[in-house]
Amino acid sequence: MQFWEQGTQIMWRYGQPGQPGLDFAAPMTVVRDDEQGLVAWLAVDTPVLKLVRDDGRDLRAERGDAFLVPRRQVASVWSDYSVLRVYQPGRRWSVWHFFHGVSGAFEGWYVNIEDPHVRSDRTTRSRDHVLDVWVEPDRRFERKDEDELALAVEQGRYSPDQADAIRATAEEVEDVIRTWGSPFCDGWESFTPDRSWPIPTLPERLANEALRHVERSAG
Questions:
Q1: Cys staple from 133: which of 87, 111, 153, 164, with CB 3.0 to 4.6 Å?
Q2: Beta bridge partners of 29
Q3: Which of 84, 103, 108, 109 is nearest to 194 (CA)?
Q4: pLDDT along the chain (219 residues), means of 10
Q5: Which residue spans within 43-192 are E strands per DSSP?
Q6: pLDDT for 37-83, tens place per residue?
Q7: Cβ(135)–Cβ(109) below 8 Å
Q8: Whole-Å CA distances, 47 to 13, 24, 32, 204
């Protein structure tokens, strides 16, 4: 596998198989990329692509059809926090280090449960699996969105067996937290980005793609 050099701008994407053009996608700057894993920086105010309901409202606007309602992709801006994401090969989760967008203070670790990543060109792609784990700076942790995972089963997004596998991944994450394994022990909470790095931009093709979704919806 070819690794990306520090400072390379890549796209970090989460989507559904068989649904091209319906991704959460963020342009990010590579901090490190090697056999140990990919580390990339998402700066506050970065233009991103996100998914909304077909009527433009947030995906969580209504619980009753959260995993059934048609979606579309729109351009947005990453706000409030800068995030250092770490993905280690073969794992079914990545660790996001949250830093306050103004002060730069470290706020905690967010563990996103997801498929193993697949890379191509300057893109790393995965699929998000609803359940997450939040870790406080003092190492206390809790699961997030367990109710949404149950709802995803009710609405057919996952089978009960698939949901059990996702919970098993959360247990694996929690075991790593308890022993304070990598990447929690790697010191990334002290990271500061290179000030010369520009805010990444969306590739023109992707920005136009999002605009076309908006136009089709309006029409």
A1: 111
A2: 9, 41
A3: 84
A4: 94 82 92 97 96 92 89 94 97 98 96 96 95 98 97 96 98 98 98 95 70 46
A5: 47-53, 71-77, 81-87, 93-100, 106-114, 118-120, 123-126, 128-135, 141-144
A6: 999 999 999 999 999 999 999 998 888 899 999 999 999 999 999 99
A7: yes
A8: 13, 12, 22, 12
C-alpha to C-alpha distances, 111 to 57, 97, 164, nearest whole angstrom = 26, 9, 17
Q: Encode burial over 165-199: b for 16+ CB neighbours within 10 A, e otherwise.
A: ebeebbeebbebbeeeeebbebebbebeeeeeeee
Residue 215: per-residue pLDDT: 43
**pLDDT the model gives residue 18:** 66
Superfamily (CATH) of domain 9-218: FomD-like (2.40.380.10)
Between strands 128-135 and 141-144, the pairing is antiparallel
Computed from CA positions of residues 108, 112, 113, 115, in that sequence, does the dihedral angle turn out positive or negative?
Answer: negative
Name the residue ranges covered by the structural domains of the chain: 9-218
Q: Are 213 and 72 in contact (CB under 8 A)?
A: yes
* C-beta separation of 43 from 82 below 8 A: yes
For residue 47, what are its two tokens?
Answer: 């233009």
